[in-house]
Amino acid sequence: MKLKIVIEVPLHKEKDKSKALKIVVAEEGVISVSIGKDNDQLEVIGVGVDSVCLAKSLRKKFCFANILSVAEVKPPEPEKSPEKCPLQPCMFPPPPCQPFYECHYYDPGSSGGCHIM
């Protein structure tokens, strides 16, 4: 289970920030660390991270570390796509039209030429 732990630590100098980040990252199960509001909060996200041990290790270096909150991180819900219109019933195209051909008949009895009388 993923946890988000917010710990208040006085981080006034850049050197203090880097030391705090090194201490937190060394803990087992830490996935990500960020510095929160006013440079005095560490936001730690991890799986199976012990918040009390984390605070104790920060107190050894900074003499002050206060756990503000411990909360479970829920996975983001997938976005619901808008409902699609139901498919229209499938209609078959009409059969192809046969081309119209004029019928010309050949009459073998006639000579087919001009007749002079």
Task: From the structure above, extract its key features.
single chain; 117 residues; alpha+beta; four-stranded antiparallel beta sheet; 2 helices; 4 strands
Give an overview in words:
The protein is an alpha+beta fold and 117 residues long. The chain contains two helices and four strands. A four-stranded antiparallel β-sheet has the order 2-3-1-4, covered by helices on one side. A hairpin with a 5-residue loop joins β2 and β3. The chain is rod-shaped.
Concise overview:
The chain is built from two helices and four strands. It has 117 residues and is α+β, with helices and mostly antiparallel strands.
Topology diagram in text:
Layout lengths: L1 E7 L5 H13 L3 E6 L5 E7 L3 H12 L3 E7 L45
Antiparallel strand pairs: 1-3, 1-4, 2-3
Helix pairs in contact: 1-2
Sheet with most strands: strand arrangement: 2-3-1-4
Classify the helix fraction into a percent range: 10-25%
Global structural class: alpha+beta
Number of helices, where a helix is a run of at least 4 consecutive DSSP H or I residues? 2
Spans of at least 5 consecutive residues with low confidence: none
- As a whole number of angstroms, the C-alpha radius of gyration is 42 Å
The percent range for strand residues is: 15-25%
Distance between the amino and carboxyl termini: 113 Å
- Give the ordered list of helices and strands: EHEEHE
Shape estimate: rod-shaped
Largest beta-sheet details = 4 strands, antiparallel
Could you tell me the mean pLDDT?
82
Q: Strand tally, please?
A: 4
